[in-house]
Amino acid sequence: MSLYLEYIKEIENRKNELGLAPKPIDSADLLSEIITQIKDKENQYRQDSLNFFIYNTLPGTTSAAGVKAKFLKEIILGQESVAEITPEFAFELLSHMKGGPSIEVLLDLALSDNPTVANPAADVLKTQVFLYDADMARIEAAFKAGNLVAKALLESFAQAEFFTKLPDIEEKIDVVTYIAGEGDISTDLLSPGHQAHSRADRELHGKCMITPEAQEEIQALQAKHPNAKVMLIAEKGTMGVGSSRMSGVNNVALWAGKQASPYVPFINIAPVVAGTNGIAPIFLTTVDVTGGIGLDLKNWVKKVDANGNTVTDENGDPVLEEAYSVATGTVLTIDTKAKKLYNGDKELVDVSSAFTPQKVEFMKAGGSYAVTFGKKLQTFAAETLGIEAPQVYAPSKEISHEGQGLTAVEKIFNRNAVGVASETPLHSGSNVRVKVNIVGSQDTTGPMTCQELEAMAASTISPLVDGAYQSGCHTASVWDSKAQANIPKLMSFMNAFGLITARDPKGEYHAMTDVIHKVLNDITIDDRAIIIGGDSHTRMSKGVAFGADSGTVAIALATGESAMPIPESVKVTFKGDMKGHMDFRDVVHATQAQMLKQFGGENVFQGRIIEVHIGTLLADQAFTFTDWTAEMKAKASICISNDETLIKSIELAKSRIQIMINKGMDNEAGMLKGLIKLADERIAGIQSGEQPALSPDDNAKYYAEVLVDLDAIDEPMIADPDVNNEDVSKRYTHDVIRPVSFYNGKPVDLGFVGSCMVHKGDMQIIAQMLRNIEKQNGAIEFKAPLVVAPPTYNIVDELKAEGDWDILEKYAGFVFDDAKPKGEARTKYENILYLERPGCNLCMGNQEKAEPGDTVIATSTRLFQGRVVADTTEKKGESLLGSTPLVVLSSVLGRFPTMDEYLAAVEGINLTRFAPPTQAMSTKYVAQAVPIKVV
C-alpha cells in the first residue's frame, strides 16, 4: 500500500473514531507522493492532494517543509507547471512557511541573476524574521560582493520593516465572557496531565480542554457574538496556576483564538484569558508567546468595615464583594489605547499591565518569537551596513535607583543582561534580554518543543547555552504504547539538536528516568546562572530558574536568550530552633502559613521572587523549599548560601555530572565536561574571595520581608486542597496549611513518597522508620498502600551501596525492573510497599493515579483537582501533602497518626534538619557593586 493510501486510511479512522480532521503532514516521503499525484492531471486523488499540499503541510524545518519549498521553487522557476499554483501564489505559500527550507529557497531566488524572480523573492524575505547565522552569512557575503538585492534586504531589515509594516492592534476589542471555573484554575483544566501524550496532535488534544459541554458553550457564544472574542475567566481566582502548559494556551487559542495562517491547520494564536487575580506568572509568559491578552480583572475586592478594616469570615479569611459582574455571556470592550476594560460606556478596571509596550509588540507581531528574532535580525543588518539601528521596538525598560543596593535576582539579571544601554545597575521593573545558562525540556511537553523548534526553523542548540537536558521522567512510570511511540522520537530529535538526553537514540547507555528538576539542579553549577525549564517546578537551589512553556524553552535553546522583566523580591529569613521531630518539609509549609498570617491573607509571594536565606542547607535539601515556591505562586526563588555550603553543593553537582559522563551521556560537543570546567572555575572564584557566594546588598529593596518562626512549628504541617470547602473558589489553592492534629484519625487510602520534592535523605528516612517500626512491633503491616519513587538512579545506587535499599526491598511487594518495565498503568493497589522506577510517578497524574475518590497523603507538589486522584460521584479525591515520615507512618496505620504515635515513630531518626544562618547573609553596599555585563 502506498503512503498516501495509508494516510487516507488514517484520515478515515480519525474521522470515524475521533471526529477529527486529517492530521497535518510532516513527512517528506508522504508529501513527495502527494506532489507526484498533483503533477498527474488525470490522477483520481489530484484535488485532495492539492488541498493537502497547500493547506495541510507543516512548515519550518519538518522534512515535508523541505519538499514543499523545493516544489514551490520549481514552480516559480517554470520548471514545473501547476494551474492552481501560480508563481505569485507559490511566493505567498513560501511566505507562510516561516523559515528553514523556505528561507533557503527565497535566498536562492533573491540572490540569483534573474530579476524576474529575485525582486518578488526579496519582497517576501523582507517580511520574514526567522533567519539564522547561515542565512545572514549568505546575505552579508552577497552584499559585500555588490549584490543590490542583498543591499535592499539589509536596508529593509535594518529598518525592521518586517515589524513596522504590520497593522497595529485593534483599538477596541469586544469580548464575551466565559467563566471557565471558580477559584484558581490550574492548567490541568485546560490541558489535563493524563492527556499529555496527545499534546503534539493539536486538534486531538484540543478535545480535552475543560469538558465537551464547555467546548459547546464556547462555540454557542461565538455563534451568538460573531464580532467578539470569547474570554476565558477564572472567577474569584488566578488563571493558569501550577504550570506554564503551552498546550493549555494552545487549547484556549484553538477554541477561542484566531488561525495564525490559512495554510497551516490548528495553529491558533491571540487568545484572551483573565482572572479575578490575574494570570499566573509563567502561564502569562505562555500567553505572550502567542500574542494573546491576559487581564487582571480585580472584579472581586475585600470587604471593609466603616473603619476601613478588612471583614473576615469565621475561618479568618477575607470576605469578598463583587465590584462588577463578568457572568458568562457578558459583552465587554477592551480599549487597548486607554488600557481600560468597559461595559458599554462604563469603565470597569484599568488593564494597563496587559498592554505594556513589550506586550503590545508581541500582539502586533503575532507572538513573542517574532519580536525576539526581529530584534536580532535588525541588529545584524544595521551592523553589516555600518549604521546605527533606528529605535523601532520599545526600548528595554531600564530602571536604576541611585544609592539603592541590589537584591540577589537583580544581581543575576545584571550579570547576564544583553544589549543594555544603562551604565548603572538595573533594579526590579526593568525589562531586559538575558543570556540563559541552563535549559531543560521534559518529556510530556518535549514533543511540542520539537514542533516549536521546527516552526522557528532552528536546527542546532545555541552556543551560548552552557548545559541543556531532555528528560524522560514524566513518562517514566509506564512504558506503554504511547510512550514507546513518542519518547524515542523525542530523544532522537533533541540528541541531534545538541541536548544531553535521558535516552540514547543509539541505545549505548541505560535509559535514565531521573526527575528533570533534580538533573537540572545538578547541572546548574553557578549560583549566578539563569535557568529555563519546561515545567513549573524548574526551581533550582543554585541560580534563578523559571518554569516555562515549550515555546519559551525552544527560544532559549535556539537563541540562548530570553526576554523578561526583573521581578520584585520577597526576602525570607528564619529565627528560632527547629525541633528534632520536625522535618524541613514542615518548615516549607509553615513558611506559606506564616506568610499568609503576617500579611492578612495576601499572598505576597505571588508573581515575585522568593529570596530565601538558607545558609548552610545543601542544594539537595534546599531544593525542597525552592520547588514548593511554584505552589506559593512565586515567579521563581533564590537560595542565599554561605561560601562553604555553596562549594559543597557544587562539588556534589560535579560528582553527579561525572557519573553522567561515565555512563556515556556526554555529547560530541563535550557539554558535560564543559560544565565541570565551569564548576571548577566557580569554586576557584569563591575560594579566592574574588567571587564569593551570591548575596544581596545590605540596602537592597524588597517588596516584603517574611520572618519564619521555627519555634512555632511543633506539629507536622499539611497542605490541604480543602476539597469540601463550601466556597468553591477556596478549593485547590495550596494556601490551606494545617497541623496534623486537625486530621486526627482521618483514614488514608494511599501514601506516596516521590517526585521532585524528595532527596536521598527522604529515602534514608523511610529505611530508618521501617527499622524503628519493625523494632517496636516485630513486623510491619501496611494498612494502606505506600508508593515510593526515588527521584534519581544515583540515589538508588547509593542506597544499595550503603545498605538502606535492602530494608526497602525487604518490605516491598513490588520492585521496579528496568528490564521489564510496566506496560500498563496500575488501577488497583494492594496494602504493600511499591518501589517504583525513578521519576515523577503519581505526581504527574498522566500515567499512574490513585484509585478514584481516595484520600492520598503524599510528598508531591500537586493539589490540582483530579491530578493525583480523580473524584467519584460519591467522594472527591484528596491529595494532601506532607513530609516523608508522616506519609510513611500514615500508610502503615491506614490513617493519620496522633502526635504520640508520630513522636514514637521518628524517635532517633535524623530528619532533614535546618538551622538558620547565625549572621545576616548580605554584602555591604558599594555603589556600582555589580557592573552591567553586556553579553
UniProtKB/TrEMBL annotation:
EC class name: lyase
Protein species of origin: Thalassotalea castellviae
EC numbers on record: 4.2.1.3, 4.2.1.99
Domain Aconitase B HEAT-like: 6-163
Every Aconitase B swivel domain range: 179-406
Keyword ATP-binding: no
Keywords: Iron, Iron-sulfur, Lyase, Metal-binding
Domain of life assignment: Bacteria
PANTHER family named in the record: ACONITATE HYDRATASE B
GO MF term set: 2-methylisocitrate dehydratase activity; aconitate hydratase activity
Domain Aconitase/3-isopropylmalate dehydratase large subunit alpha/beta/alpha: 410-894
Protein's name according to its UniProt entry: Bifunctional aconitate hydratase 2/2-methylisocitrate dehydratase
SUPFAM superfamilies: Aconitase B, N-terminal domain, Aconitase iron-sulfur domain, LeuD/IlvD-like
Residues forming coiled coils: none
Pfam families in the record: Aconitase, Aconitase_2_N, Aconitase_B_N
